[in-house]
Write a structure and sequence with these properties.
By secondary structure, the protein is an alpha/beta fold. It has helices at about 10-20, 55-60, 80-90, 110-125, 145-155, 175-185, 205-215, 230-240, 250-255, 265-270, 275-285, and strands spanning about 5, 25-30, 45-50, 70, 95-100, 130-135, 140, 160-165, 170, 175, 195-200, 205, 220-225. The protein folds into two domains: about 5-140 and about 170-200 and about 260-275, Rossmann fold, CATH 3.40.50; about 145-170 and about 205-255, no CATH class. It has eleven helices and 13 strands. The strands form four sheets. A seven-stranded parallel sheet has the order 3-2-1-4-5-6-11, sandwiched between helices. Helix 1 (about 10-20) packs across helix 6 (about 175-185) and helix 2 packs across helix 3 (about 80-90). The longest helix is centred in the middle third of the chain and has 16 residues, at about 110-125. It is globular, with a radius of gyration of 20 Å. It binds NADP nicotinamide-adenine-dinucleotide phosphate.
């Protein structure tokens, strides 16, 4: 049986990868905090504590005897991971990176810039076959900071503000579809040295998304369109009281289309990620909403 190291195994994506892949591979779970998740229910698991990705000597030990690495942490870990692979001299056959479609934003963003630089670093420096999977906004579990968080807010309020008209497009991806993509790509040469965008089946507007979530909660919510300029003033006023509900960058991102062409993904992976409606149905069925 092959052995796969999962960096960020205690994270949302990482932990689901452990759940999914531990029946197929030996797994090295690489975590900062060994108490955050309980891995004892799974077979073929070894847990390695690496306090920070920059501790490359520890990371090198944790990937010993592994055939592949999945980075479910941040893509800007690429340089440290390569250092660890070089220290270890291990025969890693494949490295899967989690990127983000956030790199396509036109809005100045330090995090998007770091991710773009990391992708370039991988292309320029990795001799080992790599695959970059770039999800859009991930949802579908109770701790997601996106749809689950939104649903908790909508449950509590009869009125909800929209930045601008809410007509910009968004295309969130269900977490199980993302995890499936990793399973398909792992050790398959077809995916080597390539990158793929993954998103939900089709884009919807922000306003539609909010309505779909409130409908699935059987909750009547009135959405009020507020001009972005007015929201900027509210942010400034709240900042005087050291309160922050949303950042300027988030406001700008809300006014940008975030839809993604997924045909390259669909052709290569042989499945189309589920629609937002189907994702919400699944969340209801599994009592996440
Ligand atoms: N969530 C989204 O909507 C979204 C959208 C697009 C792309 N992504 C990408 O998907 C990936 C996973 O996202 P997620 O939602 O699963 O996030 P997450 O739960 O925060 O997972 C990130 C993981 O990285 C680990 N980590 C963070 N900093 C570290 C460091 N300095 N050293 C070692 N480990 C470190 C965290 O450890 P701890 O568990 O100890 O905190 C965690 O396990 C990220 O690359 C993110 O950019 C996410």
């Amino acid at each position: 049986m092959k052995t796969v190291a999962i960096i960020g195994a205690s994270g949302h994506v990482g932990f689901r990868l452990v759940q999914k892949l531990s029946s197929i591979y030996n797994i090295h779970c690489i975590v900062r905090d060994t108490d955050k998740r309980d891995f004892s229910d799974f077979n073929n698991i070894q847990v390695f504590k690496v306090d920070d990705i920059s501790y490359t000597l520890e990371l090198a030990k944790a990937i010993n005897n592994c055939h592949a690495i999945i980075n479910a942490g941040y893509i800007w870990f690429a340089e440290e991971i390569l250092q660890a692979v070089n220290i270890n001299k291990s025969s890693i056959e494949h490295i899967l990176f989690t990127g983000s479609t956030g790199i396509f934003t036109k809005i100045p963003s330090s995090s998007a810039e770091l991710k773009r630089e990391a992708e370039q670093y991988i292309v320029d420096n990795y001799q080992i076959p790599f695959t970059i999977i770039r999800p859009t906004m991930i949802y579908g579990h109770k701790n997601d900071q996106n749809i689950s968080k939104l649903s908790r807010t909508l449950k509590k309020t009869p009125l909800f503000p929209l930045v601008g008209s809410g007509d910009k497009l968004i295309q969130p991806v269900f977490i199980d579809d993302l995890v499936n993509a990793y399973e398909i790509a792992l050790f398959d040469e077809k995916f080597y040295n390539n990158s793929y965008n993954i998103a939900g089946a089709e884009p919807i507007s922000n306003k539609e998304l909010f309505k779909k979530v409130s409908n699935s909660l059987d909750k009547k919510v009135i959405f009020i369109s507020i001009h972005p300029y007015v929201i900027s003033i509210i942010i400034k006023l709240l900042a005087l009281f050291k309160l922050k509900i949303i950042s300027y960058e988030q406001i700008k991102r809300f006014q940008e289309n975030k839809n993604i062409d997924i045909e390259k993904f669909v052709q290569a992976f042989g499945f189309r990620p589920r629609s937002f409606d189907d994702g919400l149905k699944q969340m209801k069925k599994s009592h996440v909403l």
